[in-house]
Write a structure and sequence with these properties.
heterodimer; A: 267 residues; alpha/beta; Rossmann fold; 2 domains; six-stranded mixed beta sheet; four-stranded antiparallel beta sheet; B: 270 residues; mainly alpha; globular
Chain lengths: 267, 270
């Protein structure tokens, strides 16, 4: 059964008069791993933040399990946020607390579980990401990969239905990046957690994706399975997916009037 | 658009921005107060909140006490030395203790402690929260359905308000002590005399109005710091800008509010 967990319906978002997202339509299907790709400034981070409810959209609607985000009461929004987990680009661990306390925070804030039970759950979550021995370390003592894994452990503390990843491979070496990808795959396949991954690392994307969408200047220019993306004839998609130096994206940058600017034509 | 309009527009824009700023800080304080029931008294919030609050109180208050004592001691001493020649002309050297104690308890204790704390508490809170904004920790809190106001702002405002009152008391006593040491050593007023005069001069009102001021100053310092910290944009430079603005704006706000309080107390004869 392919049910849409979250639906983005003709959402537009502008910042200071500039349209960052233009009438975006997207369905996140239960149980899938959806990869949202795009270059810098394509609007993918904004889309992520709209879907997790951290910023408000200007028009259109985002519907999560039948409820529109726009019309949610604060309590309903809290419920929504508890049913999703977010891994931010840097892990976004709370620097004043240890790894264990970071993972325990959602449990302490949102459940009535006694401390011993929370301690066990924290151990389980840390074991899932391979950090069980580092529960007492402070975030400042962790490497980049460990910070992301700790952030992921915190994101899954309340057993969310959907996990959002903001550039999970950013700044990581290839091996650690592959380890994180494997974690994403495991969480999706073994725990049935729906995953929405924003990234522009093609290797990662192809490793983990069930479906991919390509965002460019606020609009979707391609959707499909990884194979469909690889086989696409569209020049823009080809340039992005295969990392080519020649194509619509670079032509666009070159159209900026370089010669005129250098030789004194422009201001 | 005639050139005539431009200064009007500039002034108007500045005024509008100022009102927006005041409103923003006001809303922050309102949200913090509204968060008190869930934050301190709620079943779940309680586990973390009191630990959090205590940590903030130590950070804001306990660490600043040595500096406050040093500064107020010097101020008491300076007051005594400055006033001695003037009072001598009136044959009123014996009044030194009276004047110093009232000045310190009503005004200098709270105000100078607040200025010291605008560094310890204000700048430090603004920098800390600003850095959290830049590193996406605030967003992470929101995405965990934890209100940053309840979790971060409220403990800091409460801690600073309470600790300011405590620090002001310590400051008051130290200021009086500074005056005492100088009077006893150089001005020929014995310590016993000085203490007697102090008790003579200070009324309960002086002490209480000083405490009220101190509490309000504490609230101002932390509310401004949290507000400016939460609005940081632009990475490390933004944090630096916010920290500087916090200290400057706090000092201006402190003096302005002090003037308002003093006028009100004067009018009502407190």
């Amino acid at each position: 059964m392919s049910q849409a967990a979250i639906q983005v319906l003709d959402v537009t978002k502008s910042y200071g008069g500039e349209k960052v997202l233009d009438a975006i339509r997207l369905d996140v299907i239960e149980g899938e791993t959806l990869v949202i790709m795009g270059g810098s400034g394509s609007g993918k981070s904004t889309l992520l933040r709209l879907m997790i409810g951290n910023i408000a959209y200007d028009s259109g609607d985002i519907v999560a399990w039948g409820k529109s985000l726009h019309s949610m009461t604060p309590r309903q929004m809290d419920d929504y946020r508890r049913s999703i987990g977010v891994l931010f680009q840097s892990g976004a661990l709370f620097n004043s607390m240890s790894v264990g306390d970071n993972v325990a925070l959602p449990l302490r804030e949102h459940t009535d579980l006694p401390e011993p039970t929370i301690a066990i759950i924290v151990k389980i979550k840390l074991e899932l990401v391979g950090l069980r021995e580092d529960a007492n370390k402070m975030p400042a003592e962790l490497s980049g990969g460990m910070m992301k894994r700790a952030g992921l452990a915190r994101a899954i503390a309340l057993d969310p239905k959907v996990l959002f990843y903001d550039e999970p491979s950013a700044g990581l070496d290839p091996v650690t990046s592959a380890e994180i990808d494997q974690l994403i795959i495991d969480l999706n396949r073994k725990l049935g957690v729906t995953s929405v991954v924003v990234t522009h690392e093609m290797d990662s994307a192809f490793r983990i994706a069930d479906r991919m969408v390509l965002l460019d200047r606020g609009k979707f220019v391609a959707r499909g399975t990884p194979q469909q993306m690889r086989d696409s004839d569209d020049p823009l998609v080809r340039q992005f997916v295969h990392g080519l130096t020649e194509g619509p994206l670079t032509d666009r940058r070159r159209a900026g009037g370089y010669e005129l600017d250098l030789l004194g034509g422009g201001v | 658009m005639t050139p005539l309009f431009r200064p009007i527009i500039t002034v108007g824009a500045r005024a509008a921005a100022f009102v927006e700023f005041l409103g923003g800080v006001g809303y922050l304080l309102r949200d913090a107060v509204l968060a008190i029931p869930r934050g301190l008294l709620g079943r779940r919030g309680r586990r973390l909140s009191w630990r959090n609050l205590w940590a903030q109180m130590v950070r804001v208050g306990v660490r600043s006490i040595p500096i406050v004592m040093l500064v107020l001691f010097c101020i008491g001493a300076i007051l005594a030395l400055q006033m001695a020649p003037v009072l001598k002309n009136y044959g009123a050297t014996s009044q030194t203790a009276n004047i110093i104690s009232v000045a310190v308890f009503r005004e200098l204790g709270p105000l100078v402690s607040a200025i010291v704390l605008s560094g310890f508490a204000g700048a430090s809170i603004a920098a800390e929260i600003g850095t959290m904004v830049v590193s996406e920790e605030i967003e992470a809190l929101e995405s965990e359905a934890i209100s940053p106001i309840r979790f971060l702002v409220l403990p800091r405002i409460l801690a600073t308000t309470v600790m300011m009152a405590c620090v002001a008391v310590v400051g008051d006593l130290t200021g009086v002590l500074g005056g005492l040491v100088v009077s006893d050593s150089f001005l020929g007023i014995s310590a016993a005399q000085y203490v007697n005069r102090t008790f003579e001069a200070v009324r309960v009102q002086d002490f209480v109005t000083g405490l009220i001021k101190a509490g309000v100053f504490g609230m101002l310092i932390s509310a401004l710091a949290c507000f400016l910290g939460l609005r940081v944009t632009g990475g490390a430079q933004g944090v630096g800008v916010a920290t500087t603005r916090t200290v400057v704006l706090t000092i201006v706000a402190l003096i302005t509010v002090d003037l308002m309080f003093t006028s009100v107390f004067y009018y009502y004869g407190w």
